[in-house]
Amino acid sequence: MRVRDETGSVAWMAETSFRAMPDGDLIRLAQAQTEAFAVFYDRHVYDVLRFLYARTDDSQTAADLTAETFAKALASLATYHDRGVEPKAWLFGIAKHELSHYWRWRRVDARARQRLGIERLQLDDTSIERIEDLVDFEEERASLRAAMSSLPRSIAQAVHLRVELELAYPEVARRLGCSEGAARVRVSRGLSRLSGLLSKEGGEGER
Q1: pLDDT tens-digit profile of 30-71?
Q2: At CA 103, angle to CA 40 and CA 144, rounded to 5?
Q3: Distance CA 94, CA 156 (A)
Q4: Which domains can be identified in the chain, with CATH numbers?
Q5: Is residue 123 a contact partner of residue 63, using CB atoms and an 8 Å limit?
Q6: So what's the pLDDT on residue 1?
């Protein structure tokens, strides 16, 4: 709770008093008390970071996507309503949207983070090692290989050339023997399919 002294100044309740609260209460309180959102952040940041790193295989990208996920969650608190959707599921929904955007455009959407004045996290070697330790790569890479193997061969090749080899679309088209427009369509369809498959698997793992 908040208390006011005789001058009307606000004395904030210590964050420790929020730590026993369930997520739903934290999100409702966070609309007025930022300390509650800080606790929600601490509670789920490594789960989100692990989820994103496992699907990008890049520490800085995962950190940037995580920052944008929480920035958008913070910015949308006023419109959040608990309608049977758990706050963690809501948070991961935002993370999956950010990941889908990254896969489609190969860049992190940082507008919410910049709008809130949150600085980009610059990772040192220790931070990178800590992030890498969060993920069982054999399991995660196996999931990615399985998802890739479910794609039609022409689409899987397009995704491999564009995403894994980072080739420009004209070169992707040349190697596939198709037009640049067709190459873009194949990559887009492949990334959409992968996003759906991996997000579904990630959602099942969160329960």
Answers
A1: 888 888 888 898 899 888 888 888 777 778 888 889 889 999
A2: 85
A3: 26
A4: 14-135 (1.10.1740.10), 137-207 (1.10.10.10)
A5: yes
A6: 33
